[in-house]
User: Which sequence fits this backbone?
């Protein structure tokens, strides 16, 4: 022990630990009274009617200096200093926590109000800014060290042990549609136990080895050290409990829940059997925020001494030291001493988000932020932390795997479970099993008596709990004490509401069968005209005839204008006003006499005009090609012919071609046929209906003048348009 005394003076303690409790468990909806320790609002609208904690304990150790195989440390002969992996830095840090929860209770005193009463014993230790290189150098004592020169800086260590009695109150602050907000407050009476702290200021050490006599090696130190304890242990080494060392603290928190299916949990619609849905999870997302451990303990008998540690010591001086205070007083100068100390609690900010992924599967993200300064004398707090925890959660069983990044000790993976009245877990157990360089270890376990909120039994599902149901196995209304109303005719209408209790009938007719008043085979309930017979296709109503023309509207193409049935009830029109109705008028847009079926007659004057126009159609000599030289004249004649022919849409005309007798008769015949067809095609191209035209060639067989003279032959070379009659 004596060889470690110098290290204690210069750097306090080289081992540090992580300080959170119940990692993975406290955010379970069935954590009960334990959840109030981290957010007092969490117990409002709880799954518990009552939760009684019999006993639970949580502890954790870890550090950023020593890495070990946790399970090797239990082996006989294990040497922590030589067999661990040391990672020294100029400022190694850490904290430690042990938390024992005694008999504690949680009660739902009303649908929106919950209280909790808990007892708790706690111990938290912080060690910060420790020079790990110096620790490594002197871990075996100065007599085993070689020359070194270190700036130890401002090491700071504090430890406090105390007891708490807390009273928590949580309530629903706001509830509207999908938004649900809870708030909670905890007031705590604090009873101080043991408090101690060491704080260095600008400490540096230089060691000069004596190879002849290692115990005479010298260590020169400079700086200032403050040492404080909850009582004067120099005057009396035995611990004396001081009931006057007490204080007060409080926690507060808020929880918001997003409940997108809020309408399923509407209390105004809840039945007795629903028990206000208190046994169900109602949120999709939950957000929590809290601040804990605001307060302090006043140690009235505490002692704080400040030493100037400028001086030189040897290993022999350490070996001869009787106790810690003797060593300080013999070798260093005390420059200040005071009585009474107020010790603040490890104030921290906590936040969490809980996502109900699917049914009983959740994913929780939570974290802690220390709010105590690392340089505060007698200041201790928690480690900054963030944890992602997937979990399966049900009323009697939960299983979770927390994955944590912890300040100082890094990543760690744990596991835990809750089974009815028992829970156990660790935030680092899986890491400890797998790693040979673990810097953290923690555990927790507990026993409780959970009394869950539950649905009352309703065997027949009629909303009336069995203890109030006169017919527990058959559903019935509350007005009939849970028994069904009788239905004599089995028509689904209870006798109390049935106008025809002995004859089956639909509910909409008060339990009576429908009639067919007009005898059209449609019952009155589906008959749009129940007192007038009509076809089924018209919902039992007669078809109307709006224009009174004897054609029913359903068949009348003109239901508001009278017309004969043969024209689908529409009047027959005479568009060209020629006295021939359009339905028999072959030329409905051109006036004509009835004897010609409403089409105009082809007159001699018309035929004479066609003859004149046709004479002006010229061809290239000896060819069936319209003459280019007289193209304008020919085109004009064709247009004129077209305009004449369109006035006779039902007339048939022939285009006849003729030649003189000069040349071969067969060639003349073919030429006349070709020229007649050319004229016909030209007229069709200009818009004349092909059905109204034919073409024919006669060669030189039908002369109109003598072929002996040039004038006669010119007259015989002609094109004629002949009326053949109607189509």
Assistant:
């Amino acid at each position: 022990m004596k060889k470690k005394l110098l290290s204690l003076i210069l750097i306090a303690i080289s081992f540090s630990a992580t300080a959170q409790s119940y990692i993975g468990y406290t955010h379970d909806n069935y954590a009960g009274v334990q959840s109030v320790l981290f957010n007092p609002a969490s117990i409002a609208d709880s799954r518990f009617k009552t939760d009684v904690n019999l006993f639970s304990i949580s502890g954790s150790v870890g550090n950023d200096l020593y890495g070990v195989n946790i399970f090797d440390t239990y082996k006989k002969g294990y040497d922590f200093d030589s067999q661990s992996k040391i990672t020294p830095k100029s400022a190694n840090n850490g904290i430690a926590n042990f938390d024992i929860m005694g008999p504690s209770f949680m009660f739902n005193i009303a649908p929106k109000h919950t209280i909790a009463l808990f007892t708790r014993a706690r111990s938290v230790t912080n060690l910060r800014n420790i020079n790990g290189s110096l620790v490594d150098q002197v871990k075996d004592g100065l007599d085993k060290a070689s020359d070194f020169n270190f700036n130890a800086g401002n090491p700071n260590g504090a430890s406090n042990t105390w007891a708490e009695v807390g009273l928590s109150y949580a309530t629903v602050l706001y509830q509207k549609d999908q938004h649900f907000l809870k708030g909670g407050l905890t007031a705590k009476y604090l009873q101080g136990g043991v408090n101690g702290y060491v704080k260095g200021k600008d400490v540096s050490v230089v060691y000069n080895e004596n190879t002849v006599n290692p115990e005479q090696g010298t260590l020169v130190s400079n700086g200032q050290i403050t040492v404080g304890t909850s009582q004067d242990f120099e005057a009396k080494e035995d611990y004396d409990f001081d009931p006057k060392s007490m204080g007060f603290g409080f926690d507060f928190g808020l929880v918001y829940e997003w409940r997108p299916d809020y309408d399923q949990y509407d209390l105004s619609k809840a039945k007795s059997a629903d028990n206000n849905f208190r046994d169900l999870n109602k949120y999709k997302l939950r957000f929590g925020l809290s601040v804990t451990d605001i307060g302090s303990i006043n140690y009235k008998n505490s002692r704080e001494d400040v030493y100037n540690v400028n001086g030189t010591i040897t290993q022999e001086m350490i070996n001869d030291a009787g106790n810690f205070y003797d060593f300080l007083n013999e070798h260093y100068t005390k420059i200040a001493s005071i009585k009474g100390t107020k010790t603040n609690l490890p104030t921290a900010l906590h936040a969490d988000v809980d996502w109900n992924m699917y049914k009983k599967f959740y994913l929780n993200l939570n974290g802690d932020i220390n709010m105590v300064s690392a340089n505060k004398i007698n200041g201790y707090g928690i480690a900054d932390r963030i944890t992602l925890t997937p979990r399966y959660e049900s009323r009697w069983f939960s299983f979770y795997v927390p994955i944590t990044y912890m300040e100082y000790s890094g990543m760690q993976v744990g596991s835990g479970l809750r089974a009815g009245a028992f829970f156990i877990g660790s935030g680092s157990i899986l890491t400890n099993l797998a790693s040979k360089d673990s810097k953290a270890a923690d555990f927790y376990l507990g026993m409780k008596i959970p009394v869950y909120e539950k649905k009352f039994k309703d065997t027949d599902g009629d909303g009336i709990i069995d203890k109030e149901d006169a017919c527990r196995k058959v559903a019935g209304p509350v007005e009939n004490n849970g028994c069904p109303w009788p239905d004599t005719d089995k028509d689904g209408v209870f006798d109390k509401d049935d106008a025809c209790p002995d004859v089956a009938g639909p509910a909409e007719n008060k339990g009576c069968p429908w009639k067919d008043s007009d005898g059209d085979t449609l019952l009155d309930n589906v008959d749009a005209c129940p007192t007038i017979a009509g076809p089924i296709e018209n919902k039992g109503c007669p078809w109307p005839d709006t224009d009174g023309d004897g054609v029913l509207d359903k068949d009348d193409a003109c239901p508001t204008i009278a017309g004969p049935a043969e024209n689908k009830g529409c009047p027959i029109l005479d568009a060209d006003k020629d006295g021939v109705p359009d339905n028999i008028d072959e030329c409905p847009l051109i006036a004509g006499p009835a004897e010609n079926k409403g089409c105009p007659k082809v007159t001699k004057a018309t035929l004479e005009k066609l003859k004149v126009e046709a004479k002006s159609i010229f061809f290239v000599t000896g060819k069936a090609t319209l003459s280019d030289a007289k193209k304008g004249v020919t085109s004009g004649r064709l247009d004129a012919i077209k305009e004449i022919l369109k006035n006779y849409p039902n007339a048939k005309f022939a285009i006849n071609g003729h030649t003189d007798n000069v040349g071969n008769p067969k060639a003349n015949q073919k030429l006349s046929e070709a020229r007649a067809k050319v004229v016909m095609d030209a007229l069709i191209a200009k818009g004349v209906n092909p059905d109204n035209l034919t073409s024919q060639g006669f060669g030189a067989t039908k002369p109109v003048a003598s072929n002996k003279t040039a004038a006669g032959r010119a007259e015989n070379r002609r094109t004629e348009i002949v009326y053949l009659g109607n189509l």
Observations:
- The chain has two domains: 2-452, 604-726.
